[in-house]
């Protein structure tokens, strides 16, 4: 379901599992998972990501490739977390290669992995929703959440404002 949120402890375990996969038995799927967890981007932006869009010098990823028009579902330029940078540096490929190495959506692989870990409702979107939910709960400004997701402020406020710890603070502190 769209409203599924991964608990923080489980998300940390998933991050560790993704790093292990990227370093061993399933590099492409591990990179796909770590990108889902660390960037909260849409699955198509991650599956289509090429190494030329990863700027290690500036420590950022351009999710909208050169020559692609921005659509309503914006693809932002995002800074890399230390974890993501470390993992991507270990697997750096040729500029025109796909980062995850998939020519198709790894949906089936995610579905199997989700069932194996006891979360059959898990989808790529759940990672995005989890990131936004945790960020709102942590008090991150709605404008920053919107920019990170490539969503409008209105959309983010409608979906996540109620999770912010200061949401109704001024109503009681006046």
Explain briefly what this protein structure is.
49% of the residues lie in helices and 5% in strands. By secondary structure, it is mainly α. α2 (27-39) packs antiparallel against α4 (82-90), α2 runs parallel beside α6 and α7 packs across α8.
Jot down its keywords.
single chain; mainly alpha; three-stranded antiparallel β-sheet; 9 helices
Layout of secondary structure:
Layout lengths: L7 H15 L4 H13 L3 H5 L6 E2 L4 E3 L14 E3 L2 H9 L16 H10 L7 H14 L4 H8 L3 H8 L8 H4 L2
Antiparallel strand pairs: 1-2, 2-3
Helix pairs in contact: 1-2, 2-4, 2-6, 7-8
Number of helices: 9
Q: What would you report as the Rg, rounded to the nearest angstrom?
A: 17 Å
Major sheet, described briefly? 3 strands, antiparallel
Could you spell the SSE succession in H and E letters? Answer: HHHEEEHHHHHH
Rounded mean pLDDT score: 90
Task: Tell me the helix content.
Answer: 40-55%
Distance separating the two termini = 38 Å
The strands making up the biggest β-sheet line up spatially as 1-2-3
Low-confidence stretches: none
Class inferred from helices and paired strands? mainly alpha
Shape: globular
Number of strands: 3
Strand content: under 5%
Structure characterization notes:
Helix 2 runs antiparallel to helix 4. The longest helix is centred in the first third of the chain and has 15 residues, at 8-22. The protein is built from 9 helices and 3 strands; from the N terminus they run H-H-H-E-E-E-H-H-H-H-H-H. The chain is mainly α and 174 residues long. It is globular and about 55 Å long.
